[in-house]
Amino acid sequence: DVVMTQSPLSLPVTLGQPASISCRSSQSLVYSDGNTNLSWFHQRPGQSPRRLIYKVSNRDSGVPDRFSGSGSGTDFTLKISRVEAEDVGVYYCMQPTQWPYTFGQGTKLEIK
Amino acid sequence: QVQLVQSGAEVKTPGASVRLSCKASGYSITHYYIHWVRQAPGEGLEWMGVIHPSDGRTNYAQKLQGRITVTTDTSTSTVYMELSSLRSEDTAVYYCARDGCEYWGQGTLVTVSS
B39: which strand partners? Predict the structure, then answer.
């Protein structure tokens, strides 16, 4: 199984400041078609996860452009350019390249 | 619009089985895999298994092999997940999600307690 490792696990951020979450996979996430498949999710308490980013850097519909994803191979990053109050919650990376899909441990973002 | 609507909360005793449903609407269920993901209280997300509703092909997490069965009823656009021999560690919110996990159900809380 592909192991996904996130850091940090806790991320206190001041409103309006940037935030960055790292995700590392134990194997390359380059798919057979040459695309790299890595997704990011945001989950608020009591809610289903919401996908923010797919295929490393593509924002889902309705996701603010302050969210951006980057990376390649085994190292990936989610960046929030200016944190807003609604961004609190837990962020997960996930690899959908092979079964079983695997998730990172989650990064809890809170406002300082 | 795409929607996945899951069945209601369940309370089970250890050793029992539970069968959850996930009804899809807004698209043809035969076109996309459906995944099951669970989340124990205060914990992260755990992938459980997947089915392709067009032909019933499945793949399950190794740790759940022998206890999990995912099926589909294409006539009602519904996917079912049955988990047997329940233990307290199976207490979790169970989600279904369409392939790629862009769309998720609202989740079903399963509580296993004597």
Answer: B93
